[in-house]
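Complex record, two chains
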Amino acid sequence: MTLMIDYDRCQGHGRCSLISPQLFDLTPDDGLGVVLIPEPGSQFAQIVAQAVGNCPEQAISYVERSSS
Amino acid sequence: MMGSSDPSAMPVEELTPHFDLFEPSHSLRLWEVLDFARTSCPVVKTDADDGYHIVTRYDDLRAVLTDAETYSSAEAGLRGTPIPMPPLTEDPPNHIEFRRALNPYLMRTFLARYEEDIRRHASELLDKLVPRGRFEFMTEFAVPFTTGNLARVILDDDNEVRLQRAIDLATEISSYGWNEAFFELASLAQELLEERLASGSERDDIVNAILRATVHGRPLTMEERVGATTILFTGGLDTTKAALGNIARHIADDPSLESRVRDPEWIKDDLDEFLRLDSPIAFMARTVTKETELNGCPLKPGDRVAVHYASANRDPSRFAHPAELDFERERNPHAAFGLGPHRCIGLHFARLQIEIGFQELYKRVTRIRIPEGETVHTATGVVQSHEYLPIEFDAVQMDQAVAS
């Protein structure tokens, strides 16, 4: 499972990095979200779901990476 | 005649087509009207002012705020703004350039250098207020706290007299809205900008960023610089103040919330539930640029649209039991800071002040309550803020608070 930010949507609210500074940071220049652990593993499932569900721009996805 | 036009007695379906977002007698029925509109006609037309549509549902709000081509921000205030205020009143492609120039200076990493000043400011105010046993939270704490911080962070003026004047003007604007004080603040901002430009000094701050910013490879005009400086300053005025007051009021009403706000983790998530329920900015506006349809409602060029953040934040299709504080929500993607490219540029600064404000308050007091016989007054219009919020409390020993 891969954690990704869609930069067409992210506006830098910073909710993700507040909820989980372990998984997300913000870039210092434009302040957009950055994924720190792209494949966080199941122990992070709950906090990932929280970050996804609280993003006001629906910019975070946590999906099976397509192999093609 | 009077009876049938009395907004307090009118049936909701009769009031809604005339609902005036700025009218105090209407505001008593705000939630009733918005709840009615959301279910019966979610993009609802009112003939208030010269007529506008109110966007009441969350998904429609997102559709408007993420489509700048159809919905222009050139007149982002429902009743306009006194002067153009980039980036608030800009559309793409200029908008993104303005934001890129300013964003880095409103990041938490940059604001860290002001944290101690903000904390000291809160401490000084509270050290005077708390020994009295009660004070008026808005004018005695929230307003001076936020205006002082804004003056320090946005203007960062070495001229103490001018800085104090800016604070006084900001206080006036915060209390009475756009008026002469606003134009005096704008001319004061221009004086500061011209002085800095003439000195040629390069400082690592917001004023410098505004002076150095370019759009389309050209420097900003002085009008744009003044507009940008004043929107950063005034945009933070009523909003952070409102959030501080709204949260204090909730804690006064429900003492069990104190322990929540004492938990340093509260700013990660719980703070957002307070912001969802009582969004400081209730609405902003957009102008329709071309024939379109929004959730079944036809719109034509020139139509004015009020994007109602506070209504979207209580849309039951997005938030279960939306009129209640629920800190266990699994999803809370609230729109209190707006959505899309115009999201509040000062949100990190606002969060920082809210965090420090309550930290310093709770080092000194416990059991905040509204004194018996007192009535809280709340504003009508763009900003959902208490205007009069008297509180009393029990003082705590500072060292005891630190140990606990």
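Note: The interface with chain B takes residues 11-15, 18-19, 26, 28-31, 49-50, 53-58 of chain A (CB under 8 Å).
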